[in-house]
Amino acid sequence: MFVIHAAAEAVPFAKVGGLGDVLGGLPKAQARAGLRVLVALPRYRSIDAALEPAGEVEYRFGGRSYAARVWSAARQGVEFRFFEVDPAWNEPYEAPEAERYLRFSLALAAWLAERPYDLLHAHDWHAAFAVRLARRPTVFTIHNLAFQGELEPAAFKSYTGLEPGPELLHAGRVNLMKGAVLAAARVSTVSPRYAREILTPEYGMGLEGVLRGVRDKLVGILNGLDTEYWNPATDPYLPQRYDADHLEKKRLSRAALLAALRLDPGLFTIGAVSRLTWQKGFDLVLEALPEVLNSGTNFILVGTGEPELEKGFAEMARRYPRRVAFRPAFDEARAHKVYGGSDAFLMPSRFEPCGLGQMIAMRYGTPPVARATGGLADTVEDGVTGVLFEEASPEAIAAAVERLRGLDRVALARAGMARDFSWDKRAAEYLELYEEALGG
Ligand code: GLC
After folding, report:
1. What is the CA(278)–ligand 1 centre distance, in A?
2. What residues does ligand 1 touch, defined as CB less than 6 Å away?
């Protein structure tokens, strides 16, 4: 089977968030399982890997013909193609987003029209329009319903020359995600629980009615983890590597981390690595922090996002220099050290389609404290591998941290490290979905 993935990002070429990790991990696992796999991405200027020229493709946009240059690369059995629809396009998610991603979809569809392949697997709104244009069966995966790819009908018409019909219009605007949800042979999202949640007004972001209408073709498949990359037994960023049989060595990672950050080594230490957005719930953490610190706890946070939150955590770090450390940076090395060196890992998300941090933390023997939502609820087993809490509130966060402190954390760590989060299992589930899409 020959599968084409289309998305805005893929490790190691471009990454903004968890989507990039998925497009790094799933195709590799599929190639290992014997599929032919190609990943189509926009050609961003920020991609500095060596790419080979791979011809051109003509596509129409705004009433004109364009020739997009195509570039190629290969990694661990996976082919990559990069579509240069705009040479000035620097990074994923730059404005004006909808226009550039529409061009990406149009160029990709023109390219696919001349090629044999079996199935197109498109991810999130960026690649959604390609689902409508593809002539072969499609699978569409929702990674985050908060971004749906909306634009004015007049703009859409001037770009594509097409009159947007009811299958694309939503609340008066063109909604690319809705279009893909309706057109795809199968729709998936990245955890079984989120697949149920998005049918409700609380999580559906306005598309719950559309999604309820397609529930027969909607499934949840958990994301995997790149367990080669995320492995405490081989992680080059850790001062001392360890595994489940040598958990005592984790203490050295902990000591090094706390010393580097000048935190009190005698205190229970909670770590977090996150984008600081409403989704992730860190405004609630900021409110919960005084109470959490009072009970004799350190808090470490690595991540960037909303300026208000960055300011708030920087202020807490100034006020409690021995208890709070905040790194407002996308710092891969520090992130690894936090996963390896903390006593617990916090993920208080308001919604979380899958989430990666909780799986990494469990693999590193660092029990997560997470909100019982989406993929967090599907991967963390309350009282066994970590602690789950229901309510999105500062009180619930503080109480959950207290609860974790009272549990046998070595037992939790061992149980978490024994879980299998590898992509291979997930690749098999996707294959089943592909077979359904091809069959029906
Ligand atoms: C989005 C979701 C996150 C998920 C990731 C990859 O970033 O917010 O929960 O893990 O996509 O699917």
Report:
1. 14
2. 17-19, 22, 143-144, 190, 223, 352-356, 375
